[in-house]
Amino acid sequence: MLTRFSHVDCSPFSKFFLLKFTARYGDQSPWLNQVTEIIRAIELPKSKFYKVAKELRLSGCLEVRETRPTEIPQIQYEVKIEEPVSWLFIRDAPVGVHKDKIQQLLTWNSLPVAERPHQLTIPQRVLMIALLEEADAGGIIRNIGFSDLAQRTGMTVRQVKNQMAKLREFHYVRASLPGGNHLGLTGKFNSIHALNLRHPGFEQQRTAGRLVVFREAAHFVTHDEFNYFYFKRKELRKLNSSRNQTPHSQPDLSEGLRRLVGRTENLRPSSAWGFLNWLCHDLASRALTELWNELTEGAAAKLIRLINEKIRGEWRSAYHPIIEVDDGENPERKSAVQSIQPRLPLLPLVDVSMSQAVFGIALRAKRALEYWEAIPEYAEACHFQILPLPDRGEHMHFALEITIAGENQLVRTDTFALRFNRKLGKGRFERITDVYDLGHSVLETTGLATPPLTCPLLSTITRM
Question: Model's pTM, two decimal places?
Fold first, then answer.
């Protein structure tokens, strides 16, 4: 939807007009006696409607046709947009999994913002639609940057970032990890965003599934595996430190690892390591989703090889966005290609050990879910997602979101917590009445939310 209008230079309100118009009429409205019928269909305030219509007419995107003076007075609006190559590239792809939520966000409500079911202004809704179009079944956006979102929504990059902060505050976005660029480790990578598909504002379109919060996760998932890149960074910095202290006595390192150690000269905690931590958890989520039935201890060696192959191929490509580049044969046109970023030059040097960590996280998470009977029926058809965690050193807790594909529900999502009782020396499984009962600190450290949360619909949140 928005991809089609990404190249149109106009305001978020005009983008909203184009979305509503094409959803209601296609590209051309019928002949009407009064323009008020179109205003009601677009569901914009009258003053805003005429301002938007003027902007789109000046840009050449909207044509208004009227009958001759001798005929019955009628009017017709027509959208005239040459579809960009990037839209042509993806238009035959399956319909987005969140189309019902997008449709709900397109519904205007004349109530004040604080009383609306969705709580969002038009620019915020346009941004949410752009995010939903890019999100997978678990609500994760991996491959679109702020500049792309700005172009698609009609906002500046600063406005997109400000509105994204509001979406986190209203809890439509659970958490975001910043993008960055580190030539030696990752190359250029986009920000990661996790949508809250179970927000109360989605009403009937709330996604069905479960949330399982792992408290003191080391008792359920091996600590070294879950914090693989945290310990890898410590190991590399230790090797680098020993190399600097005794330059004539080098450790026995492979050439590849020697080069990698050289890249850690000034590697303090950065967004690159945060991205790599997330990458390991995200790949474990893919393993749970796609290899649920195969995840067994007996098939470890075979599965680690399979995971390694998938990381080198199709799983890695999920982080590469579709971009427009100049067409060498036709300078006036653009071609849509898949970006080569992030290059992830680190992976070939650690892919085997990382594949083992990915397998270990997925296997032990599956064991815990099965032991405590915390998985829905037909787990092989579910989408599993470890939520993005703030990059603050070692991670002690995490949340696993389980989405039942293609199902929405009106009731609240089941939420459970796995805790470890130190006195008894065993785990405990308990149902949580409301995810917000966990408190702000747990919501933040597990990636469930980014406090402060101020959405009026979340008025039950009172604890810090």
Answer: 0.89
